[in-house]
Specification:
The protein is mainly α. The chain has a single domain, classed as Four Helix Bundle (Hemerythrin (Met), subunit A). The chain is built from 5 helices and no strands. The radius of gyration is 21 Å and the shape is elongated.
């Protein structure tokens, strides 16, 4: 039997979560690309986004969905797959992988929904209110964006810590099997 020193004691669960990062990447990319097409197809929506104060927040939601959803999830899934094989030891903490996945997704979805809510509410308010009144409506929602952003940042820090500890080694001393070199 071939020795796989990178295999985690819960390898099936670890593979499942690694794939979930890739699946999330695919879902976010389809949503993000579709969002861009919809905005391009409807001139009234584009006009609202481009010419209403706070309308650009809708596109910030789109950008964050693509960057933090599509791009980062692809990177995370790939790194979670590659690093254990590269350093020939299992991931430091499978629990941190799970926490990272759920925390990142929850934070990202919260950010995107909050960006869109702020853009729609602020843009609509600017039609009948002064810029100061519209900004007063948007401000608390943007605080929510920041709180969800901190969640994403925390998830990314957990990822970095987990990968760093995996690369640098940890409490077990893994000995390379000379037959598999």
């Amino acid at each position: 039997m071939r020795v796989r020193p990178w295999a985690h004691e819960r390898e099936q669960d670890y593979r499942k979560y690694t794939l979930w990062f890739i699946y999330a990447c695919i879902i976010y990319s389809i949503i993000g690309f579709s969002w861009g097409v919809v905005v391009g197809m409807f001139p009234d929506l584009r006009e609202f986004i481009n010419h209403r104060p706070h309308g650009n927040l809708i596109m910030l939601g789109h950008g964050h969905l693509n960057l933090l959803g599509w791009v980062e999830m692809a990177i995370f899934g790939s790194i979670y797959y590659i690093i254990p094989r590269l350093v020939r030891r299992p991931i430091y903490s499978f629990k941190l992988v799970r926490i990272h996945f759920w925390m990142h997704n929850f934070g990202l979805l919260g950010m995107v929904v909050s960006f869109v809510a702020a853009g729609v509410m602020g843009g609509a308010a600017s039609m009948t209110m002064s810029p100061a009144e519209a900004s007063a409506i948007v401000r608390p929602i943007m605080i929510t964006v920041g709180m969800f952003g901190l969640l994403v940042l925390s998830a990314n820090m957990i990822w970095g810590y987990n990968i760093f500890r995996t690369c640098m080694g940890w409490e077990k001393d893994y000995v390379r099997d000379s037959a598999t070199v």
